[in-house]
Amino acid sequence: MKRAIIIVLDSVGIGALPDAAKYGDEGTNTLVNIKKARPNMLLKNLSSLGIGNISGAEILGKVQSPTGCFGKMAEASNGKDTTTGHWEIAGIITENPFPTFTKTGFPYDVMRQLENDTGDMGFLGNFAASGTEIINILGDEHVRTGFPIVYTSADSVFQIAAHEDVVPVEKLYWICEKARNILKGPYAVARVIARPFTGKSGNYTRTKNRRDFSLEPTADTILDLIQKSGQNVTAIGKIEDIFQHRGITIAEHTTNNNDGIEKTIECIKNNSNGIIFTNLVDFDMVYGHRNDIDGYKNALEYFDSKLPDIISALKDDDILFITADHGCDPTMPGTDHTREYVPVLVYGKSIRAGIDIGVRNTFADLGKTVLDYLNIENKISGTSFLNTIN
User: Fold this and answer.
1) How many CB atoms within 10 Å of residue 8?
2) Is the sign of the CA dihedral 332, 337, 343, 345 positive or negative?
């Protein structure tokens, strides 16, 4: 029974794309720059699969005989955000980037409509800031007034932060749904994100109750096609939210990377077909955006330590794909995503080992390969590399 497991190490890029300068991302290389900043970082299991055999990433530990196949993928879409990256992996290339409101905040008409739709509720903020920064700036006023905090970033996002004791989580989700219904047309940001937090003045902390409200994919993805074929699509982490709950048969929400890894192993052990699609968001959300090099390093090493458990759970006809959706280089100035290649490592008992699949022109090559392996006819973007590794 054939099955594909895709694990997205959120933001684990592997070198600036040729057009990175257009995004202000020259010199970025999330994995390599962390290794340069922390030479003691050891990723022995990823190295065994071939991560150090990827062109330009030799510093990560090149080996003589990799047990997996290896390469890297360029992003063909215009953008460097989570939705764009995941959609491209799943077969959609986004030519027109999602709108951003970094310089101006959201227009008066949008905010006024949101106030009307939520019962004349007031809102604070409406400017670009990091999530930890803005709750420290406006958290006290939010607690005093009860008004949720609206903010954005260099990504195409409309984020709403609220203290869980002031605005209950379910009400915050309801407000986000109202915002999602408003943010269409020229204001159609990729994601509306609920950002609950707790704590007291001077010590506010975001909780694990984040939820993303994404746009619907603009065409069929590999998730839709696999589900329509009668096979299972198991979504772990924020995959369900990124694809707006479409094409998914089983959803497993997670609280952090460790939980996501354990749920992935558990699902691999189950007898199912189709795909298991996992996102490990902490690399990006907890470490990349906060320029936490040590935290990022430790999270990479933890995933590496669990890789043998993931591999040992694989069945004979399983193929494991490890990749990313963009970069978020914590060694660089700024806290935004970075426009990078992403690694792709492939392992399975039924495929050849040590094959260099080269530099792929689009993330969609991965999705195309998955559909090829599962014998599902399709017209999605990308070129399968199954014949190279089979």
Assistant:
1) 30
2) positive
- Beta bridge partners, 200, equal 203
What superfamily does domain 108-213 belong to in CATH?
Phosphopentomutase (3.30.70.1250)
The pLDDT-based confidence of 335 (bands split at 50, 70, 90) is confident
Q: Where are the domains of the chain?
A: 3-95+218-389, 108-213
Which residues fall within 8 angstroms of residue 147, CB to CB, at 6 or more apart? 121, 122, 123, 124, 141
Question: For the chain, what percent of residues have pLDDT higher than 90?
Answer: 94
- The bridge status of strand 318-323 relative to strand 342-347 is antiparallel
| Superfamily designation of domain 3-95+218-389 | Alkaline Phosphatase, subunit A (3.40.720.10)
- Per-residue confidence (pLDDT) for residue 67, from 0 to 100: 98
Strands 233-236 and 274-280: parallel
For residue 205, which of 148, 255, 164, 253 has the smallest C-alpha distance? 164
**Rg of the chain, C-alpha, whole Å:** 20
The set of residues, in sequence order, having a beta carbon less than 8 Å from that of 70 and lying 6+ positions away, is: 49, 50, 51, 53, 54, 343, 344, 345, 346, 355, 356, 357
What average pLDDT is seen over the chain? 96
Write the CB contacts of 377 (distance below 8 Å, at least 6 apart in sequence).
none
* CA 110 to chain CA centroid, nearest Å: 27
Considering the entire predicted model, what is its pTM?
A: 0.91
Give CA–CA dist 41/299, Å, rounded.
11
79 residue type, one letter: G
The structure tokens listed for 37 are 């900043």
Cα(20)–Cα(332) distance, integer angstroms: 13
Give the neighbor-by-neighbor strand order of the sheet with 318-323. Answer: 250-252, 233-236, 274-280, 3-9, 318-323, 342-347, 69-73, 356-360
* CA distances from residue 42 to 39, 46, 51, 58, 287 in whole angstroms, order as listed: 8, 9, 12, 13, 18
To which residue do tokens 């959120």 refer? 10
